[in-house]
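Data deposition worksheet. Section B asks for the primary sequence of the deposited chain exactly as it was used as input, without tags or linkers unless they were present during the calculation. Section C holds the resulting structure in token form. Section D is free text for depositor observations; keep each observation to a single sentence. Incomplete worksheets are returned to the depositor.
Section A, Depositor: J.P.
Section B:
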Amino acid sequence: MEKLRYVGLDVHAETINVAVAEPERNGEVRALGSIPNRPESVRKLVKKLGSADQFQACYEAGPTGYVLYWQLTEMGVKCEVVAPTLVPVKSGDRVKTDRLDAQKLARCYRAGDLTAVWVPDAAHEALRDLVRARLAAKRDQLRARHRLSKFLLRHGQRPSSKMSAWTAAYLNWVKKGVHFDQPAQEATLADYLHEVEHAQDRIVRLEKAIDASIETMPEKMREVIDALQSLRGIAKISAVTIMAELGEVSRFETPRQLMGYSGAVSSEYSSGERTRRGGITKTGNAHLRRIAVEAAWAYRYRPCIGASLKARQKCASQEVKDIAWKAQHRLHGRYMKLMAKGKLKQKVVTAVARELLGFIWAIAVEVEQRHKSSPKKQAA
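Section C:
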């Protein structure tokens, strides 16, 4: 059997630098130059490299996405997308070029020193794009609201009666109750107000699109999303975000692996007999970590099942409800215990979020395994 060659691809928006490492341990690593980042150029490269079973390729995850991965796999080439933060770096390296980067990828790929990331399929990638578009709209809304509120504050504009900010009554007051003598300030107010309303319209539109996507997605994905909402602090958007970022959760063998994937595990600096643990690594999926931390704040309160949580659990299995109830007791107890020790609240919530990921793993895996073992669903 002919040994495989290892191809490193340094991918950019317009170009791809290519290097090939021969299969021998100390074999030559050749730079093949640069090609345009276009499908036809990639096809020519594959043809030049020979049969698809004679080599395998890798490139770093980045802004170019997974289009190249999908093209190569469709052509029968084994391709892996690797984590850029985990590519080995020599402390003495002071020269960086695209050619050298491609050669380093090929060399490290041959040595087995690279860590592959999960590549979503088309359905998960589409859902991820939609969820992240909503997140961008929420952040734009926050910035627009800050601009408007600070503008009103600078000019001493406050509602006469006590009302909550950004309610319908508050926005009605801004439209009808705020006036300026200077036309320039009137124009500024109108523009700031338009930005706030536009951001809200975007959020509504994107959330409707998310609802429509849920209706058309595979049954197993819908079941996991429904089940995750049985956890306190995790409603529909949070559950959809978790599904979009993780895909099939059972690919993680243990909850600890999921915690590491999110970057929520503690860093460690050990030497000899001395061990020192630091803050969380943050070398993981930031979107998943954000959802877990936001949900963890709900466990400040004593365990209970309110009206909204009860409605979300209506179609959940008893096994899922039991896991969710156990999570409430465990995580609230953890929160209270750490707070009693005088820990900073943010650190306490981060610790609770890390354990919450374990319960997310347990519920998702339970649903996925039940779906696989169901003869009716397998036949469908």
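Section D:
The chain has three domains: 5-111, 122-216, 219-379.
The mean pLDDT is 93.
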